[in-house]
Amino acid sequence: MPIHEKSLIRPENLVTHEHLVIDGVDVSGHWSTFITSRAVTDYNEQMEEEIAALPGGEFIHRCWQCGSCTNACTVNAINPDFNPRYWIYLIRMGFEDELLRDKDIIWQCVSCNKCTYACPRDVNPEGVMKATAHWLELKGHTEKKPSTVFDEVFSEQVFATGKIEDGRVLKQFFARTGQSLIQDWLVALVRSLVSRLPVGLMMKLGLATLFRPRTRGWDAASAAIEEYVSECEAAARKALRLDVQGAE
Amino acid sequence: MSGKYKQVAYYPGCALEGTGHAYNRSTKELGKALGLDVVELKNWNCCGAMEVKNVDPKLQTYLSARNLSIAEAMGFDTVMAPCNGCYHNLKKAEYDLANDPASREVTDQLSRKAGHETYKAGKVETIHALDWIKQAIGEDGLKARVRNSLKGLKIANYYGCMYTRPRHIFPEKDRGPGSESTWKPHFMDDLLAAAGAENVEYPLKTACCGGAHTLSDSDTSTKLVLNLLTTAEACGADVIATECPTCHTGLEMHQVRAEKVFGRKTTVKILYFTQLLGMALGLSARKVGVPENFSASSDLLRARGLG
Q1: Is A146 in the B-facing interface, judged by CB distances under 8 Å?
Q2: How much is the mean pLDDT over chain B?
Q3: Cα torsion for A216, B58, A135, A162, to the nearest 10°?
Q4: Residue B113: which of B44, B54, B56, B62 has the closest Cα?
């Protein structure tokens, strides 16, 4: 069943007729504004399947559109356009063009899991948001979003050494996203801390950035993880038919 | 005291060795003051936090399974994690290993390649630092040991996301009287009240601080944190008590950022619950790492005769 979305009422879809008579009734003027009829012909019939093939998206088919996810959503409360229920509907219907209108905000899911807590159908909407954000990137609809860059910086350290060092994560993330470390608030934060911190502890923290903390005997685990990650990447590319497209 | 959780394996995690070192210090000092033993997991690895699951959730399961296998090999049946992220991921791994054959298969395959025993669900219980104090000492035990009461210090108890959500990975919660609630958690409230605090009615106990995007989507995080801070102040709180290094650092960072970037100043202080309990037991502010917090709370604490 179609769900009537308020979002279809957009300026470009509204028509006001100067002179229009329907069945003998004059419907001219702004008091009888029409929404242009539309015929959708370009359904993306693979979209749901492809997103379901990415980690987190597996249970999208369970959704019965109750809206508990959007009702509970942290990000929706500060941006009403952030609407997981609606996106799941679009994905399942194959309305790719409609989904792409929101392509630059889907990555902003903060993973608070309120949706997953509230969902009566175990859709795991949080996972669906991540899978959808990855789908948009893999398909080339968006560039790599900052959250993906952060995930990569973080995960690379874990896979290589077994641990992360938060100062290093911060520095690498700022470098890869082209941001300066000299930001007002960051400087203020460090300055206030340095004025109070015991010298011994500062030395210890400084040393941690020089000598990266690592898990002893991690090499075998690291190799196994890297191998598994490449398998996952290959599986995702296959599910999204990316290599087929590349060969054309 | 039942002797339960008197000695537990301790999983500090990466954050407690970095920005959350005050939490690490205060947790250990609190344990010592209460006569509880913590034995750090040998050679532990990162739990994957909120990032590795976005590469593949089964990898995060493996990372936690490795830590649980270490606890088992060390002869422990309980591992205590003070960090919400670590705690959540260990619980999630436990749930997935019990319920998802694909997670079991990947964990087994990676464990064999990495050269250690595959962890099997049900061998080790994961608890949070809150469960640890609540079960091993309890409110009455704590009351008997308080030497420097928090004297009605007004506290908003902030639990964050990962301590209660999603609820299916915490089968021991929501079990009626005495158990923790995922909807309205109260373990921290109970302990701080026993130490003499006055807990304010704080409706955002389990709201999100935006920790997963604290750097990658800073404006969203600042808005979420500002909401937490202003609400705590509106509820009359002097202090927000935390139980997660990501929330704690997020609150501190974005309190400064809200002032610098949005021009919104708030004055509520942010302290780990372990720091507050430690000071109530008579430990000094320095001993529980108060000077290591970004949020400068010494003036307030001195005025209240604490630390």
Answers
A1: yes
A2: 95
A3: -10
A4: B62
ipTM for this prediction: 0.94
Q: Is the dihedral of CA A109, B207, B57, B243 positive or negative?
A: positive
A85 and A57 in a common domain: yes
Amino acid at A73: C
Identity of the residue in A162, A167, A217 whose CB atom sits nearest the CB atom of B46: A162
Using the beta-carbon criterion (under 8 Å), do B260 and A184 form an inter-chain contact? yes
Using a cut of 0.90, tell me whether the model's pTM lies above it: yes
Domain membership of residue A246 (yes or no) is no
A234 interfacial to chain B (CB closer than 8 Å): no
Domain count, chain A: 3
Q: The domain at B148-303 falls in which architecture?
A: 3-Layer(aba) Sandwich (3.40)
What are the structure tokens assigned to A98, written together?
């409609």
Give the SS3 label for residue B44: coil
Most distant pair of Cα atoms in chain A: their distance: 89
State the fold for domain B7-128.
Glutathione S-transferase Yfyf (Class Pi); Chain A, domain 2 (1.20.1050)
User: B46, B226, B266: which to substitute to probe chain A, counting the most A Cβ within 10 Å?
Assistant: B46
d(C-alpha A214, C-alpha B44), whole Å: 9
For residue B245, what are its two tokens?
């290094």
Sequence-distant (6+) residues with CB within 8 A of A3 are: A65, A89
Rounded mean pLDDT, B22-27: 97
B82 and B274 Cβ atoms separated by less than 8 Å: yes
pLDDT tens per residue across span B96-126: 999 999 999 999 999 999 999 999 999 999 9
Q: Whole-angstrom Cα distance, residue A129 to residue A109?
A: 7
Number of neighbouring beta carbons within 10 Å of residue A105:
17
Residue A22: give the domain boundaries: 6-35
**Residue extents of the structural domains in chain B:** 7-128, 148-303
* Separation of alpha carbons A101 and A186, rounded Å: 34
Q: Which amino acid is at A170?
A: L
Mean pLDDT computed over A15-28: 89
Q: Is A245 part of any domain? A: no
